[in-house]
Amino acid sequence: MFNKHYAAASLVLLFTQPCHADKDLLPLDITGANGSLLQFKNWHQHGGWSDIEYKGPNGAFRIYDLPSQQESSGIGTVISSNATSVSPDKKFLLVYRTVFGDVIDEQGNAVNSEQAHCEVVALESGCVKSVGSVFQCDGAWVDGKWKVTTGEVFNFSKEGLSPQRLISEVANLSSSESRSNSLRDLIFMGVPSYMACYPPEKSISEYNDIGFYFAQGGEHLLAMQIYNKLLSLAPERVPLKLNVADSLWALGKQVEAKSFYISYRDVMLKKGAENKVPVRVEERSR
Known about the structure:
The protein has 286 residues and is α+β, with helices and mostly antiparallel strands. The protein has a domain at 1-160. Helix content is 35%, strand content 26%. The strands form three sheets. A four-stranded antiparallel beta sheet has the order 1-2-3-4. The longest helix is centred in the last third of the chain and has 17 residues, at 254-270. It is globular and about 65 Å long. It starts with a helix and ends with a helix.
């Protein structure tokens, strides 16, 4: 009889290493194509590393890092993998992500919960995409694609949610908090990794909307990760100036925010659109 819990536990063991005498596992370095490097640091008791950093031809950034100024939810994430999970061409790495923490049930009781996911990291870019449940990690690399034992084939280039599809997934949700929380779940790999999957220069308007949705839900740190990249691509984009100003102001960076409010106001005045300038802009520009 097939035992799902036993199978999941077995897959976890495949992705971890034996414990060291000091109860901590050493960092893991995975070298990929074109000199790329994926570093796993800070072993956690839940069976994985909590600090993952990618270094590649186009720079370095942390993966699975979702900064927030909101009150901690008590939810954590650890990542497991090993050298045998690298594709033969060293372009991809299979990883196992575990999300753990207490959730509140219908009776209002805190219940410890754990959810496992199977994902692939593109070692040439740092882009992460979801394969599916932990059981999808049971398979083998075949011609550069991950083939699950049940027969499904994961084609990395065809999977994932583009910025356009991402917006369509959340745009009709009823509240700002719901949209922001949903985006956090969908951009589980972190903003830099998501941008490695979908270059922002091709979707500036969509990324601006994603940043705005994050800001509406109070996730201004995530919004600023997006806005900072967009500023390097489209510094004169008028809506972006206002969005940046609002998020900086919310983060307590009033001096920086003021310069963006002034720049936004001046552009709007030149366009003869002073009646469209929000009252807060003038108040915060003084």
